[in-house]
Amino acid sequence: MKQSDAIIENKECQQDNNLQGDCLQGHLLIAMPSLEETFFERSVIYICEHDDKGAMGLIINRPIGLELEDLLDQMGLNPTEEVAFNINSQVLVGGPVAPERGFVLHSPQSSWINSHQVSDYCMLTTSRDVLSSIGTPKSPDEYLVALGYAGWGKDQLEQELAENTWLTIKATADLLYSKSPETLWEQATKQLGFDMWQISTQVGHA
């Protein structure tokens, strides 16, 4: 996994003739047991972009140990006491690349011109405008904030899938905006209909 050249582009997922396999934008990658004792152990990654040049996604189930209210304060956004009271969210580790960079996934609203549509229920931005609205009446209904991202170069994700490193499922709003990120790996694997730890790492991806 490495840094992708283009982190965010304003485009919808479309089948590309040069892309081997299906476009996985808007899907979840679920780490297989073979990734135990690695950075991506039990990770659930939301794929924000996937084309013939590579892929980019955010880990959505690993709290960094920082409350969003504190991050906003560190950024100089200084939420008022009333606004801070309405913020109940943890900052997530989005991935190993550019950990100083913030990403926001949020429910769609037409007012955010710097946000790019990923799916019917999700937009992605690196802009401060959404962050500054959190806890106010202008805030998106659902959101999560992550530092860093996971990136794959050309054909790299496809190779990892062929090696059974990940399982894939279509993401849902309920999974993406889960209020219990620590249990999301178990929640996501239940969608597959079996116990992850009972399968061989040689089984093909779903």
Explain this structure to me?
It is a single chain. The protein is of the alpha+beta class. 17% of the residues lie in helices and 30% in strands. A hairpin with a 2-residue loop joins strand 2 and strand 3. The N terminus and C terminus are likely disordered.
Give me the secondary-structure category: alpha+beta
Instruction: Bin the helical content.
Output: 10-25%
Order of helices and strands: EEEEHHEEEEHEHEHH
Runs in which pLDDT lies below 50 for 5 or more consecutive residues are 2-11, 201-206
CA-to-CA gap between the ends? 21 Å
Based on CA atoms alone, the radius of gyration comes out at 17 Å
Please sum up the structure shown:
The protein is 17% helix and 30% strand. It is an alpha+beta fold and 206 residues long.
Give the helices and strands, then pairings.
Blueprint: E1 27-31, E2 44-51, E3 54-59, E4 63-67, H1 68-74, H2 81-85, E5 90-93, E6 97-106, E7 116-119, E8 122-125, H3 128-133, E9 143-152, H4 156-162, E10 166-170, H5 173-176, H6 184-190
